[in-house]
């Protein structure tokens, strides 16, 4: 793996021996999203989930003077397929999911996060054509992500974004009617269906809505509902 260095900071592949320290740094930023950050069980839940999503073949750390100052938990994936995606991601391209990007509090604002975010864009691999990720609405950081990524879904309080490293690849993935729904209503089809369900709408009414707005078949609507409800 090619190392990348700037301002004394070096980006390298994460090793098993780095994981425990990375989890400690990461928890300082994300802990409160998992519950009471002072409760040991919250830390355990956070760590278990993080390690489950961690792929050491692609994950990165940032070092300065031999000390870890940030990292990026990544996972090798195919194109993300979620109900109501705004783009048709049918295809065989592979890339990475950005699970968690974190920077030590003492080193924020020094470009460490930027180096980690853009490592694979600047050090291309034929098997990594994109990066995608999820961001809680509560993080209020979508402005930063949308500088380089496109929003491709938004449901259950989570934004889903993706960047194609080769902009021309977008020609392979046309927009879907689900993006029309989002632009028209301000909410995704998935969130809209959940609201319809809570308000007492029947399965038939929800199916008819999807068939009309998303231009899908009854069978596709039934599958969509089975994934959401």
Give an overview of the whole structure.
The longest helix is centred in the N-terminal third of the chain and has 14 residues. The mean pLDDT is 92. The protein has an eight-stranded mixed β-sheet. The protein folds into two domains: 169 residues, Aminopeptidase (3-Layer(aba) Sandwich); 52 residues, no CATH class. Helix 1 packs across helix 2. A hairpin with a 2-residue loop joins strand 7 and strand 8. It is an alpha+beta fold.
Structure characteristics:
eight-stranded mixed beta sheet; alpha+beta; globular; 229 residues; Aminopeptidase
Strands, helices and their partners?
Elements: E1 4-6, E2 9-13, H1 19-30, H2 40-53, E3 60-64, E4 67-78, E5 94-103, H3 112-117, H4 119-122, E6 130-136, H5 142-145, E7 150-155, E8 158-164, H6 177-185, H7 189-198, H8 203-213, H9 218-228
Parallel strand pairs: 5-6
Antiparallel strand pairs: 1-2, 2-3, 3-4, 4-5, 6-8, 7-8
- Unreliable stretches, pLDDT < 50, 5 or more residues? none
Kindly give the count of domains. 2
Helix content: 25-40%
Return the CATH topology of the largest domain.
Answer: Aminopeptidase
- What's the CATH class label of the largest domain? Alpha Beta
Count of helical regions: 9
The gyration radius over C-alpha positions equals: 19 Å
Sketch the major β-sheet. 8 strands, mixed
The shape is globular
CATH H level of the largest domain: which superfamily?
A: Gcn5-related N-acetyltransferase (GNAT)
Q: What's the order of the H and E elements?
A: EEHHEEEHHEHEEHHHH
Ends apart, CA distance between termini: 43 Å
**Structural class assignment:** alpha+beta
- The CATH architecture of the largest domain comes to 3-Layer(aba) Sandwich
Q: Provide the spatial order of strands within the biggest beta sheet.
A: 1-2-3-4-5-6-8-7
Number of β-strand runs: 8
